[in-house]
Amino acid sequence: DILPRFAISSHYKDMMVRINALTTLPTVQELSFSNLPMIKVENPIVDDSTAAQIEAYYSNLNGYYTNPRLYNCFLKYLKRIVSAENLLCLHSIDLYNSIYIETYNDDINKIKDKDIIIDHAWLTYRFFLAPHACYEVGISHESQSYVAMRMYKPIKNMFDCIKKELMVTLETHFVQFKKEKEYQDVIALFK
């Protein structure tokens, strides 16, 4: 009884358009690294911060993630070790969360620009999470399935399980990055 009604609904047609889009995944050239805007996060570093406070802040992943210059430095390192997709995916997830929070109104049906949220969720899925995506990240099947099942009607924290896995990977890479000359050069700028 329900399936025939669903099959003729506009929701079903929208879902089928998105599913058909997965048959032709985007190519690497379609994602511009420079087109991802920085997340707006308050930087705790102020003019009277001591060198030790500055170094402590920028010696962890969050400091690099919130500063465009440092972000690009870490991204360059990750490209060199062929792991940039993890940082780009994390960035895309945070953009999704910031877009959702800006337009959130308790219920996705009441959100003024829900198409923007749905489009960004699908963009993130198509570039990073879909099987054989051009920037496919290494995540568990369980997390990938969880997100895939929520793509039709995205929710606020639907990417949190992916974000946790990406942070573990990026923290591991960041430990290695701290041993590189690039890291030392950047930290020297703040002393």
- Based on the structure, what is the oligomeric state of the protein chains? single chain
What structural class results from the helix and strand content?
A: mainly alpha
Characterize the biggest β-sheet: none
Shape: elongated
Helicity range: 55-70%
Strand proportion, as a percent range, falls in: under 5%
Question: How would you spell out the order of helices and strands?
Answer: HHHHHHHHHH
Total DSSP E strands: 0
By DSSP (H or I, 4+ residues per run), the number of helices equals 10
Q: For the terminal residues, how far apart are their CA atoms?
A: 69 Å
Average pLDDT rating: 76
The poorly predicted ranges are 33-48
Rg estimate, integer Å: 19 Å
Task: Please explain how this structure is put together.
By secondary structure, the protein is an all-alpha fold. The protein is 61% helix and 0% strand. The protein is built from ten helices and no strands. It has helices spanning 2-7, 10-21, 51-58, 61-66, 68-80, 84-103, 114-129, 141-149, 160-177, 181-189. The longest helix is centred in the middle third of the chain and has 20 residues, at 84-103. The protein is elongated. The model is unreliable at 33-48 (pLDDT under 50).
Features:
191 residues; mainly alpha; single chain
Layout of helices and strands:
Blueprint: H1 2-7, H2 10-21, H3 51-58, H4 61-66, H5 68-80, H6 84-103, H7 114-129, H8 141-149, H9 160-177, H10 181-189
Helix pairs in contact: 5-6, 6-7, 6-9
Task: Write a brief caption for the model.
This protein is an all-alpha fold. It has helices spanning 2-7, 10-21, 51-58, 61-66, 68-80, 84-103, 114-129, 141-149, 160-177, 181-189.
